[in-house]
Structures are given as structure tokens and as C-alpha cells.
Design goal:
The strands form two sheets. The protein has a two-stranded antiparallel ribbon with strand order 1-2. The longest helix has 41 residues. It has a single domain, classed as Rhopdopsin 7-helix transmembrane proteins. By secondary structure, the chain is mainly alpha-helical. Strand 3 and strand 4 form a beta hairpin. It is globular and about 60 Å long. The protein has eight helices and four strands. Helix 1 packs parallel to helix 8, helix 4 runs parallel beside helix 8 and helix 7 runs antiparallel to helix 8. Helix content is 69%, strand content 4%.
Length: 270
């Protein structure tokens, strides 16, 4: 299959593989650094708390990238003598693990939005419906995308990792749906809004900056995965910091309920 590529396309594919590897290593380094940076606060605010849904969700989405990104992604980019069949298995595993990771990180942000609106009854009904309408197509696009990944023979002896030579553009549709889901509406009259606004603004800026070059390069073979791991790690990092900020805020005198979200504040009127 690799022999069918022209010399120019082969060089571009090798270059894109190398560039993507650099981004993957950078994203993995950022994730590990942030985990170490926030670990003391996490131990104090999360690990020492009682087990509940939010604690389990936090830990799941916080540490899952260590498997799908730091371990599996770097392996299929840097591993030696990885067979084509093994590459396909790895891509399928990474694809679904990342999907679960994105969904769990977004669930934290969704519950955060629900908290800002003081558990608004309308949102209580609309958010589950919107969740299905957005994440249903994401699963569908994932099912379309994963079989389209074509892995070729290594272009030269000693080539590291899996040599992807062809995919379709369904992955970009997943991120379009993700951007739609990220269009939250906040309640600016809540003190809680002041806590989470900085992180929310960061998420919007990051998504916008990353999506623009992604749309420009998605049609160029090999660049479909360029920013995937960076977005994966940033979602986990920002979602984790949101919950840590909320729990830190809880120690500053607000009255907090211990319900599903574990961070709903019953604030006094300003």
C-alpha cells in the first residue's frame, strides 16, 4: 500500500507523522506536569473526600489520558516493529477510550453549567436531551471514522510507530459536535460564575484556536491527528481544574449540598 504513494506524498506523510509525534509528546508532557502541579490540591480536595459520583467521574477523566494518550498514543507513534493489525487494534482502543474521556470531561463541565444556573428545572430536562442529540452523532462519526484508518508498511527500515496513509474526515465532524456542546450559557449573577468563568473562557479560546488550523489541514493526509492529543489532554486538564476550583470555593463560606454534583452552592443574595 505504501508503494502506491508518490515520492512527494511519501515525504509529506513521513513529515506529518514526525510532526504529530512531537505534538503527542508535548501534550503528554503537559498532562503529566499538570497532574504533578495540582496533586497536593487534588489529594486535599478530592482524594480525602467521601466517594460519590463526582469523585469517581473526576478520577476517571483525570487519569484516563495516561492510558489513551501517554501510553497507547506514544506507543503507536514511537513503538518499534508494530504490525499493521496491532496498529488497527490500538487505534480502535484509543478512539473509544478518548470518546469516553471527552464525554466524561464534558459531563463535568455540563454539571458545572447546571450548577451555575442553580439546578434550573428547564436545564434539568433539556441537558439530557441535548446530550443525546450531540453525543449520538459523535458515536456515529466515530464508527464511520475508525474503519477508514489505513495503515501502510513502514516507509523505511527502522520507521517508528504506525504509518497512517489514509483516513476520511469524519473526525473533524466529531469536534464540530463537541464545539456545539461547549456553547454553554452562564448565570452572571452568581458568585459561582466568578469562580468558573476564567476556566470556561480558556476552554472557548483553546477550542477556537485549535479548530481553525484543524479545518485548514484536515484534508491533507496525515494531519488529522495533529492536534487530537493536545485537545484530549486540555479537556481533561481544564475540566479537572474547574472541579478543583469549585471545591476550593466551597471552603470560603458558601453552603454546599452533597447531591449528585457535589458542588452546588446555595448562595446568599447579593
Amino acid at each position: 500500500m505504501t508503494s502506491a504513494l508518490s515520492n512527494g506524498d511519501l515525504i509529506k506523510a513521513i513529515f506529518s507523522h514526525t510532526l504529530t509525534t512531537h505534538f503527542d509528546v508535548a501534550a503528554s508532557t503537559l498532562l503529566v506536569f499538570d497532574i504533578l502541579l495540582t496533586l497536593p490540591r487534588e489529594i486535599d480536595l478530592v482524594w480525602k473526600s467521601e466517594w460519590n459520583f463526582m469523585k469517581a467521574l473526576y478520577l476517571f477523566q483525570r487519569y484516563l489520558p495516561l492510558i489513551d494518550t501517554v501510553t497507547l498514543t506514544l506507543y503507536h507513534q514511537l513503538g518499534r516493529h508494530v504490525s499493521i493489525a496491532e496498529c488497527h487494534r490500538i487505534y480502535y482502543t484509543i478512539g473509544w477510550l478518548m470518546s469516553f474521556g471527552f464525554a466524561s470531561s464534558e459531563l463535568i463541565l455540563t454539571l458545572r453549567a447546571w450548577a451555575v444556573w442553580n439546578r434550573n428545572k428547564r436545564l434539568t430536562m433539556l441537558l439530557p436531551i441535548a446530550w443525546i442529540l450531540v453525543w449520538g452523532p459523535v458515536i456515529g462519526f466515530q464508527i464511520i471514522f475508525l474503519p477508514s484508518i489505513k495503515v501502510g508498511d513502514p516507509p523505511y527500515v527502522g520507521f517508528p510507530g504506525c504509518f497512517v496513509i489514509k483516513t476520511n474526515t469524519a473526525l473533524s465532524l466529531c469536534f464540530i459536535m463537541l464545539m456545539i456542546w461547549d456553547t454553554y450559557k452562564y448565570n452572571p449573577n452568581s458568585t459561582l460564575f466568578d469562580v468558573v468563568y476564567r476556566d470556561a473562557l480558556s476552554i472557548f479560546n483553546v477550542v477556537a484556536i485549535k479548530t481553525f488550523p484543524k479545518n485548514l489541514t484536515v484534508k491533507q493526509s496525515g494531519y488529522q491527528f495533529l492536534l487530537l492529543t493536545l485537545e484530549r489532554c486540555l479537556h481533561s486538564i481544564l475540566s479537572s481544574r474547574v472541579l478543583l476550583d469549585l471545591r476550593l470555593f466551597a471552603r470560603h463560606g458558601s453552603r454546599w449540598s452533597e447531591g449528585l454534583t457535589n458542588f452546588i452552592a446555595e448562595e446568599d443574595e447579593r
